[in-house]
Design goal:
This protein is an alpha/beta fold. Helix content is 59%, strand content 14%. It has a five-stranded parallel sheet with strand order 2-3-1-4-5, with helices on both faces.
Length: 190
């Protein structure tokens, strides 16, 4: 099984590159953001709880996310692997993911860190908000999300380095070159 954690700040291109990885390697994609947005759109109880956190630019409780991921992962039959997009975001979540995968006889193959300068992230997210109408892509919320990323999420880099799973990817510039770099990193662990 090829289980990839795609990592980076909001706007780093995780969703875009995830689609390209899925097409190349034939693995499944779990985007916690997409799953949560669907729950919100459908007006489920989970969606209502999630919306409260997301509107404030905060992370959801770990138990909630782990339950969603386990259920989604278990729904994939005969899967070649999964790319986790938007998860984990904290060290406790990384530990919970490691445990959940171990219970299924699997592990994270690699963590790809899409590194993008902050000013580029702001530009991308503001443009995405204008194009898509996503409510969380406004300047105030973006700044909160980037602050949460720097304080709560970026410590995962050192955690995955200790696990021997970390791989740096320059996440800006030519899209095809970014994909080439990603594929080289994945092919090292396949």
């Amino acid at each position: 099984m090829l289980n990839i954690v795609i990592f980076g700040a909001p706007g780093s291109g995780k969703g875009t590159q995830s689609e390209r990885i899925v097409n190349k390697y034939g693995i499944n994609h779990i985007s916690t953001g997409d799953v949560l947005r669907a729950e919100i759109k459908n007006g489920t109880e989970l969606g209502k709880v999630a919306k409260g956190y997301i509107d404030q630019g905060q992370l959801l409780p770990d138990e909630l996310i782990i339950d969603i991921l386990a259920s989604t992962l278990d729904s994939f039959k005969a899967s070649k692997g999964v790319i986790f997009d938007g998860f984990p975001r904290t060290i406790p979540q990384a530990e919970a993911l490691k445990k959940m995968l171990a219970e299924r006889g699997q592990e994270v193959s690699t963590m790809l860190d899409l590194n993008v300068p902050e000013e580029e992230l702001m530009r991308r997210l503001i443009n995405r908000g204008l194009e898509s109408g996503r409510a969380d892509d406004n300047e105030e919320t973006i700044k909160k999300r980037l602050n949460v990323y720097h304080t709560q999420t970026s410590p995962l880099i050192d955690w995955y380095k200790k696990e021997g799973k970390y791989q740096y990817i320059k996440g800006y510039g030519d899209m095809d070159q970014i994909l080439t770099d990603i594929c080289e990193a994945i092919d090292k662990v396949k």
